[in-house]
Amino acid sequence: MSEVHVLDHPLIADKLTHMRRADTTSQDFRMLLHEISLLMGFEITRDFETVPATIETPICMGNFPVLKEHFFTIVPILRAGIGMVDGLLELMPYAHVGHIGLFRDEKTKEPVEYYFKMPKGVENSIIIVVDPMLATGGSAADAVDSLKKRGCTNIRLMNLVAAPEGIALMQERHPDVDIYVAAVDEKLNKDAYIVPGLGDAGDRIFRTK
Ligand code: PRP
Ligand code: URA
Predict the structure, then answer these.
(1) Are 105 and 134 in contact (CB under 8 A)?
(2) Which ligand sits closest to the CA of 114?
(3) Which of 78, 80, 103, 162: disulfide with 202, CB 3.0–4.6 Å?
(4) Which residue is closest in CA terms to ligand 2's atom 7?
């Protein structure tokens, strides 16, 4: 069974509350999502391995930790996942970025894939899939399916807000993928929106409504 890490840090919680407010502007929404992604990135990378490197400081030689691995791939689920990429890139400027385009069919709520582009050799990298919303979980689970079909094995998922239904589906279909979230909300409504949630993340980021 995968682990669910709820990153309930006070700074993250405060920023998320501002994002939930219906009167928060797109400009502020994007800025807060960026900031939270950076803060969450700190935790999602906590288990990255280091190895000792011998270096010379201005004073003496010494052994100090450096990252063992530098091949990381951030994979936003389009569209809303794009809003979480730059925060992680600030922490890991050497990371690669792959894209998966998925939208939920308005009637069935089932995800439909329309784009898949990964960096060369992605199967050998540590992958962080990002999407602000984990609602039914269908989009994230399908995204991970597509990555696994490409041979990827080291995958973790980062969401801002999750519904219990989405977590359950991910754990059922991908028990090897740990989930990092800022908050787990109460439920889904009849339109499969997260309650209380923050509305449609893509529309709020890109001002499409
Ligand atoms: C939203 C969100 C997730 C998905 C979550 O995207 O960004 O990708 O819904 O829902 P699920 O867990 O029930 O699959 P949407 O399909 O609205 O596409 P968009 O980002 O292009 O607006
Ligand atoms: N997608 C969103 O953007 N918000 C939700 O609450 C559910 C799916």
Answers:
(1) no
(2) 1
(3) 80
(4) 193
Entry field: residues in the chain:
209
Q: Is the CB of 165 under 6 A from ligand 2?
A: no
State if residue 98 touches ligand 1 by the CB under 6 angstroms criterion.
no
Ligand 2, atom 5: closest residue by C-alpha: 193
Residue nearest to atom 6 of ligand 1 (CA): 103
Q: What domain count does the chain have? A: 1
Q: What is the pLDDT of residue 109?
A: 85
pLDDT tens-digit series, residues 26-84: 999 999 999 999 999 999 999 999 999 999 999 999 999 999 988 999 999 999 999 99
Which residue(s) pair with 179 in the sheet? 4, 157
- Both tokens of residue 128? 């962080």
Supply the CATH number for residue 163's domain. Answer: 3.40.50.2020
Note if the pTM is more than 0.70.
Answer: yes
Q: Is 82 in the pocket of ligand 2 (CB under 6 A)?
A: no
Phi, psi for residue 7 in degrees, rounded to 5? -90, 80
Q: How do residues 171-186 score in pLDDT, each as one tens digit? A: 999 999 999 999 999 9
